[in-house]
């Protein structure tokens, strides 16, 4: 069975959803890290954020991350950031 985001129910559990939202909310976590951990492209992350947050919170998040260089590895001036959450998986 799939939900309204087109994702299979067994693919993402509540703990993973919380971690996904936490990673997306962080300013320094690139979308590529989210894709590596959860297999979700930027557009799907935006859909999840839109459906999981209040409209005002989503708009604030989109305004903050739009055009931000740290959100994509290729646009960064460095390869590794200064902080990595202990909860973030490595490849």
Question: What do these coordinates show?
Answer:
46% of the residues lie in helices and 0% in strands. With 91 residues, it is mainly alpha-helical. The longest helix has 12 residues, at 14-25. The protein is built from four helices and no strands. It has one domain (11-75). It has helices at residues 14-25, 31-38, 42-52, 55-65.
Secondary structure blueprint with pairings:
Elements: H1 14-25, H2 31-38, H3 42-52, H4 55-65
Percentage of residues in strands: under 5%
Q: What is the helical fraction, as a range of percent?
A: 40-55%
Which residue ranges are poorly predicted, with pLDDT under 50 across at least 5 consecutive positions? none
Tally of discrete structural domains: 1
Distance between the termini: 29 Å
Given the structure, what is the number of helices?
Answer: 4
Rg over C-alpha atoms, rounded to the nearest angstrom: 13 Å
Major sheet size, sense and barrel closure = none
Helix/strand/pairing category: mainly alpha
Mean pLDDT: 77
* Number of DSSP strand runs: 0
Give the overall form: globular
